[in-house]
Structures are given as structure tokens and as C-alpha cells.
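ok so i was messing around last nite and threw this chain in just to see what happens. nothing serious, just curious
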Amino acid sequence: MLKEVLIVEGKSDTAAVRRAVEADCITTGGFHFTRRTLENIAAAYKRRGIIILTDPDSAGENIRKFLSKRFPNAKHAYIPRDEATANDDVGVEQASPESIRRALSKVRTLELNPREEFTAAEMIALKLAGGDDSSRLRDKIGAALGIGYGNVKTFVRRLNNYGVTRAEFTEALKNVTSVNC
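result:
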């Protein structure tokens, strides 16, 4: 049983999570939170901690941002988009139990004092921005690091805000680019 309570978007997400791990879940019901839902999340945050596991799409990202502002010490888990897509639908409920367990094994917490270790200029130099294959490479590296997919600005922000070390980044980059050779 996970110590933290998982925050997911819907009932189908809860069912998918429970096929993967033993955990308590709170569903947001999308972006329109009720007062009671926010009170339940706040109580879980204080008592046990929370892990935000939203869909890898823009709606899920908006929910994640909203919750991150209210609950700054929340943990974050990301399922790669390609592992959460089936039947022309993207969501936690589409992910396999293995994908959910893998995402939960790479949980990250936002740094209270984000670093400025990584830059967009560096991403360009490494061909993680501006190239034909840049988006796919960022997606693979984000999956390896457990920070999810993002455009260059979001990717750099996550690298810096989730405390990704230079060694972790270098190893993920090496592993992803060696597979693509």
C-alpha cells in the first residue's frame, strides 16, 4: 500500500491505478474541483502526502499546475504519453499496470528553490530543440527521468524544478541517443 494518496482525474484512472498498485485515490472529476474535493486533497496532503498523477495532456497539465500551487510539497508522477495512449484516447486509464508502476517508481518533488542548471540554449546545442527529432528525444528523456513530456521551455523548467542532476540527465541522454544510433 502506498503511503501517499494518488490524485487522478477520474474513476477510470482510479481503476487503472488499482490494477497496478494498492493505493488510495482521490479523483478530481476534471478541472472543475468541488470544495469538498479540495478539502479531501488538503486533508490527504497534511496526513499522508499526495502524488499527482494526471493525464499526459494539456488538461492534465493544467490540473497539475493548479494543484502544485496549492500543495507545493506534493509529489509528481508522469506516465509517458505513448504509454498512456490507446484507442485514440490519452489518459492514465489507458496505461498498463507496468507503466503506472514505472511512473510511481520515478516520483519527483518540486524544489522550493529551483536551480538554473539547464538552459534552452543547452537543449539547442544537444539537438533537443530545433531539430526534426527533438520532440521525440525530449519525450524519451523525460520518460527516463520521470518528468514527463514538455516543449523546450517546460522541459528545462522541469529539469531545474525537479532537481534532476547533471549525472542523471547525462545518463538519460546517453541511453536515449545510443538507442537511436
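not much to say yet. The mean pLDDT is 94.
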